[in-house]
Amino acid sequence: MAKDYRHQPTLAALEQMIEAGEVDLILPKQSVDEFARNKDRIIRESGKSLSSTFKRVKEAVRQFGKEEGREEALASLDDVDHRITILGEAVHESVQRIEKIFGQAEVIETSDAVKLRAAERAVEKRAPFHKDKNSIGDAILIEVYREILSGADKNSRYAFVTHNKHDFSDMARDEREPHPDLADLFTTGQSSYSLAIGEVLNAYAPDFMEEVKWEFEYREEPRLLSEIMEAENLLFRQVWYNRHWNLRSAIESGKHKVVSEAEWKKHPERHQRTTVDTVWEKALAAAKRTEDEVGLENLGPWSDFEWGMLNGKLSALRWVMGSEWDFLDT
Predict the structure, then answer these.
(1) The DUF4935 domain covers which part of the protein (predicted)?
(2) Sign of the torsion formed by the C-alpha atoms of 159, 161, 165 and 167
(3) Residues 162, 27: one domain?
(4) Which residue, 45, 178, 200, 288, is most buried by CB atoms nearer than 10 A?
(5) SS3 sequence, 113-157?
(6) What local confidence, expressed as pLDDT, does residue 113 receive?
(7) C-alpha angle 186/187/191, rounded to 5°?
(8) Contact present, 162 and 168 (Cβ < 8 Å)
(9) Number of domains in the chain
(10) Residue 328 lies in a domain
(11) pLDDT band at 93 (very low <50, low <70, confident <90, very high)
(12) Containing domain of residue 177, as a range?
């Protein structure tokens, strides 16, 4: 669940149901220890290795890719790399949420009786020892569950939830069912076997799950890098065009003058109030291109509030792309 960001809605539902007193999480100490031992590796591997691979791929495309379609391929790789980085950070968030959930759970120490029953399973080659490997850890988990059931509250329902279908499920017939060697633990309606905690929550409390459905199902996907760059470019041109018209108005009112390059160099003290004629011609041409490409309907005029929003959006997108806050140069 920590590795895949798509499980975050399930974590949200579990958090709410624990807070509402609908669900108690019971954890073998072994599971808590294994998570603590592996969490740093999970965070380290989430996205970073893929991101470095994409950087090498992009460099290869630049060097050896055909010119036709190369820019489109690089833009697509940039988008994927951007998503990997953002979604990789979601793994860190998931780890923190899981640890918080663990902090609210009942942690069961491994008793000597559990160890003995797990060893007996090994001797008798019963699942999870039905394959040729050391499965003592898995055997301890199932025997801890047996111990919990032996002291079960008659008014409660219990579920053994595992992603490890190869060791616990009946792979020969139906992976959603427990292995025949474990079936005695799930013969009553009080105890169930599942491969997904979301299924257990929905089966137990469908009405409650419906109440949190928006959080359980909805997740905003990160923007593509190409979308961010396109939006930043539009905002850049809108802000530039507005500043251009401020300068144009100043020229028309006589507060600012268009001068020759020779005159501009002759009076450096007037540089703030003068613009070289050749530069101004290029600015007028750029304004015309902006009008044609962006459309006059997208170029203002704006109220003070709208103007502030435009500058704020440009600053935010530039920050996302690596600039410092409030960088609004055009």
Answers:
(1) 6-168
(2) negative
(3) yes
(4) 178
(5) HHHHHHHHHHHHCCCCCCCCCCCHHHHHHHHHHHHHHHCCCCCCC
(6) 95
(7) 40
(8) yes
(9) 2
(10) no
(11) confident
(12) 5-217
Q: CA angle, corner 139, sides to 138 and 145, nearest 5?
A: 95
| Contacts for 160 with CB less than 8 Å, ≥ 6 apart | 142, 145, 168, 178, 185, 186, 191, 192, 193, 194
For residues 84 and 117, membership in a common domain is answered with yes
Rg (CA), the chain: 31
Of residues 226 and 185, the one with the higher pLDDT is 185
Tokens standing for residue 304: 């003070």
Residue 167 burial (C-beta neighbours within 10 Å; 0-12, 13-18, 19+): buried
241-285 confidence digits (pLDDT tens): 999 999 999 999 999 999 999 999 998 888 889 999 999 999 999
Regarding whether 123 and 27 lie in a shared domain, the answer is: yes
Q: Do 253 and 118 belong together in one domain?
A: no
Examine the pLDDT at 329 and tell me if it is beyond 60. yes
How many CA atoms lie within 13 Å of 30's alpha carbon, on the beta-carbon side?
Answer: 15
Q: Are residues 57 and 139 in the same domain?
A: yes
Length of the chain (residues): 330
Q: In the predicted model, is pLDDT for residue 170 greater than 70?
A: yes
Q: How far apart are alpha carbons 7 and 214 in whole angstroms? A: 14
What is the rounded CA–CA span in Å between residue 117 and residue 141?
11
For β-strands 158-161 and 191-194, DSSP reports them as: parallel
Question: Does 189 fall in a domain?
Answer: yes
